[in-house]
Amino acid sequence: MKAAYPHIKKDVHGFYVITVPGGKEAYYTFGVTHGKVTQYGIALNKQDCFN
């Protein structure tokens, strides 16, 4: 994950987030447990509901 997205940042909830390359209107989220990606998501910046 960090090799693919070297500028990725951890948010206040512990997820790693980065803007979708070439698409400023969305972002990727990654959940990491014990050094392995265990969750992945994509969301719109203006999205207000997550399931």
Molecular structure report:
By secondary structure, this protein is mostly beta strands. Strand 1 and strand 2 form a beta hairpin. The radius of gyration is 11 Å and the shape is globular. Strands 1-2-3-4 form a four-stranded antiparallel β-sheet, with no helix packed on it. It starts with 8 loop residues before the first strand and ends in a 7-residue tail after the last strand. The protein is built from no helices and four strands.
Q: Could you tell me the number of beta strands?
A: 4
Number of helices: 0
Low-confidence stretches: none
Mean pLDDT: 92
**How large a portion of the residues is in β-strands, by DSSP E?**
over 45%
Bin the helical content: under 10%
The largest beta-sheet arranges its strands as: 1-2-3-4
Characteristic terms for this protein:
51 residues, globular, four-stranded antiparallel beta sheet, 0% helix, mainly beta
Secondary structure elements and pairings:
Blueprint: E1 9-10, E2 16-20, E3 23-33, E4 36-44
Antiparallel strand pairs: 1-2, 2-3, 3-4
In short, what is this structure?
This protein is an all-beta fold and 51 residues long. Helix content is 0%, strand content 53%.
